[in-house]
């Protein structure tokens, strides 16, 4: 795993204090290991929490934000670098380009969108970068159950679960991601394997 981790996280704090605590602990673990983060550039929510913690500890934080959101004053004002792009698709492309790995923290629809795009790209082997879920307070359990359901119903392969690295503990998650070996995915299209 390289030095730059892309963070996907909620622009709200959520209802549990553990979400905020785990975001800060992940920021601390990232700085201790000499990594930097790339994220959506916001000053609010869990996005702001992890960025603030990394910056407070002397770490490097790169934000990537569409111009309209920058103008809306959601942009973090103390980042190492803020990259403005033309839209959400350009944001995801730039974040992928800059990153060696991805970690999703609890979040909403935007977090799921970003996570699933990278998961989809890994499934069709456009990248082989580690994808982690910081499963604070079991937040991602329903999502993992949905992926399991898609496998059980014949829409995904068992090997696709190997594309995700999951832990509720930041250090454990980073340890697993550093040891990540991409799974052998096999044929995605069951009808073509006959």
Automatic annotation (TrEMBL):
Biological process (GO), any one: cytokinin biosynthetic process
NCBIfam families: Rossman fold protein, TIGR00730 family (TIGR00730)
GO cellular component terms, A-Z: cytosol
Hydrolase in keyword set: yes
Gene this chain is encoded by: yvdD
UniProt KW keywords: Cytokinin biosynthesis, Hydrolase
Signal peptide feature range: none
Annotated protein name in UniProt: Cytokinin riboside 5'-monophosphate phosphoribohydrolase
Recorded superkingdom: Bacteria
């Amino acid at each position: 795993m390289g030095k730059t981790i892309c963070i996907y996280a909620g622009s709200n704090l959520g209802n549990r204090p553990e979400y905020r605590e785990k975001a800060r602990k992940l920021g601390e673990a990232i700085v201790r290991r000499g990594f930097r983060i790339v994220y959506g550039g916001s000053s609010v929510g869990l996005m702001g929490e992890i960025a603030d913690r990394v910056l407070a500890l002397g770490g490097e934080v790169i934000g990537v934000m569409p111009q309209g959101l920058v103008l809306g004053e959601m942009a973090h004002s103390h980042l190492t670098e803020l990259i403005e792009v033309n839209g959400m698709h350009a944001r995801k492309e730039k974040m992928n380009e800059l990153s060696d790995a991805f970690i999703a923290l609890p979040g909403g629809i935007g977090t799921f969108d970003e996570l699933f795009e990278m998961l989809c790209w890994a499934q069709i082997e456009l990248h082989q970068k580690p994808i982690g879920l910081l499963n604070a307070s079991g937040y991602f359990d329903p999502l993992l159950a949905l992926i399991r359901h898609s496998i059980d119903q014949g829409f995904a392969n068992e090997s696709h679960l190997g594309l995700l690295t999951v832990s509720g503990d930041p250090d454990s998650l980073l340890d697993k991601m550093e040891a990540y070996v991409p799974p052998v995915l096999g044929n995605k299209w069951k009808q073509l394997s006959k």
